[in-house]
Amino acid sequence: MSSDRLAIIAASQQGITTGLRLKQELAACGTTEVALFSPRAGAESTRIGSITEWTAEEFHNWNALVYIGALGICVRAVAPVLQSKKSDPAVINCDERGRFVQSVLSGHYGGANDLARRVSRMLGAQPVITTSSDVQGLWPLDILGRDEGWGAEYRAGLGGRSLTDAQAAFVNHEPTVLLLDVRNELTDRLERTCPDFVTVAYRYEDVDVESCSLLLAVTPFLYEPPVQAVFYRPRVLCVGLGSEKGIDPERFVGSFLHRLREKRLSYRSVTSLATVDFKLQEPAFQALATQLGIPLQGFEAQALEAVGGVPNPSETVFRKVGIHSVSEAASALLAGHEEWIVEKQKAALEDVEKGQPRHFTFAVSLRQDALRRGHISIVGAGPGDPGLVTVRGRELIEAADLVLYAGSLVPEKLTEYAHAGALVRSSASMSLEEQFELMKRFCLRGKQVVRLHTGDPCIYGAIQEQIAWFEAHGMPYDIVPGVSSFQAAAAALNSQFTVPEKVQTIILTRGNGRTPVPEKERLRDLARARATMCIFLSAEWADQVQRELEEEYPPTTPVAVCYRLSWDDQQVWRGELGSLAAMVRESGKTRTVLLVVGEAIGARQNRSKLYDPHFTHGFRCSSREE
């Protein structure tokens, strides 16, 4: 739902009070324009003649409308001006005391359902959503993938004539197949939330059209199933172009789109176009980019020539412009890998006079991040409590075929999120090479791998060598951040590690132990800032740590020795810097210990400016200005 312009229409004085509260909350959350209207006089609202008259004039000038008052008033006002679900704004209705918020119009397409939930949260109200798919927790077929830029196309078949028929079949739990030709974050989510009456397929050949009533297909390919289908077109096709100079733009656009259809590809899935840089101003290419609403890129000849494995190099082109390939090399550069779903196609415009430019070439590649192949996610497990893994991290664990976790640091309980049939292995007894081979074996089979590290994987996570190996072997990966133990320490100590006007810096470091610390990062030098210092992997050398810190910090500086933060057996000892080494010895702990030093520990003085009534910012004026 677009939140650019939102109107609140209050029927009563109490409604104005609720409307003012809502207006303030919406504005603070970034809604560009929020206006309050009412037939009642009020200093904070714009007075109107009647709600019905205002609605007749203004209804389609707003992205969303919130009526505050009796539902009947709202219904009678909007009924005469309704046009289409694809053009009518979102409409919700709220009682004047803000107890119930009901989605009235354009629940999915206009975003009224989401708006009703949002407004309910702001008012502490009960949302009232009656759309069948929302009530059942099913996907909204009419807007599925819209936020990700997917186009949607309905194709009639047995049992259906319109998208409404497809939605009816879906909410009535008729046998449905979900075809996923590509993979991204949303398709992963669809797999995780798949209803029990939906079967997932990864190739069209595997779709059992004889036993299903509806096909939902996330694909750039054109199919003609006998059953009704909804095709979702993700933007995943990268097209490289070449041509003679000055070919007719109109004929070129028509010819290209026709030939793309012949290759059973949807133009709605084209995400980018590219050619050699000196052809960027070719009118035909510019016209195609305009027609598709996507950018046209130009690559330097050197970059195009560097693409390896081009299947159809041309000596003729090389003699003319010094490049063996334009269209194939350009599509590969756009896609991020050297594979093609359509190799170079030579084409000629029809009905062009002899001697006039008419020839062009194109090639198509699928974006690398859309390929349905194995993938590795390096996931931060958090400090220990399974509840502190991120939502994204848990989702990946649940979907993974292999979970390889740091067994000495990550609690086994966290791996219980893995699905039945997944392989869960501890890496504690494995060499790095053994870990690599195991992950590679799964990745090459198109499986999903989670490499689970403690805390945040980018802080002392030893992932650099893994990343280098993944890149050297062409294995796709991503990194999912986690909650670090230094953040868990702040929570355990009930402290804010940055205190206004006292300390605004947090230093994450380690002492000089088995792994040498660069001379410029020795504790004695870092201590000069007297920041909040979180010292990892250093309890074994507590005496040395204390000596170096005492060169700059007063001996009475608060310290904490934190053991297995957020685990069931978490322990925390507090004291002063002068007794740090003794505290560590008395604790008897040297592994999974974090040392925290600084006056921010337990500090309760010094107020933040953020909520000071005399401090202004983008969402609040100071009390002096009111």
UniProtKB/TrEMBL annotation:
It is an enzyme of class 2 (transferase). Residues 54-134 form the Cobalamin synthesis G N-terminal domain. The keyword Thylakoid does not apply. Residues 376-580 form the Tetrapyrrole methylase domain. GO terms for molecular function: precorrin-4 C11-methyltransferase activity. Its EC number is 2.1.1.133. SUPFAM superfamilies: CbiG N-terminal domain-like (SSF159672), CobE/GbiG C-terminal domain-like (SSF159664), Tetrapyrrole methylase (SSF53790). Residues 237-364 form the CobE/GbiG C-terminal domain. Coiled coil: none annotated. The keyword S-adenosyl-L-methionine applies. Residues 139-234 form the Cobalamin biosynthesis central region domain. Gene3D superfamilies: 3.40.50.11220, Cobalt-precorrin-4 Transmethylase, Domain 1, CobE/GbiG C-terminal domain, Methyltransferase, Cobalt-precorrin-4 Transmethylase, Domain 2. One of its GO terms (biological process) is methylation. Pathway: Cofactor biosynthesis; adenosylcobalamin biosynthesis. Keywords: Methyltransferase, S-adenosyl-L-methionine, Transferase. PANTHER family: COBALT-FACTOR III C(17)-METHYLTRANSFERASE-RELATED. Belongs to the precorrin methyltransferase family. This is Precorrin-4 C(11)-methyltransferase.
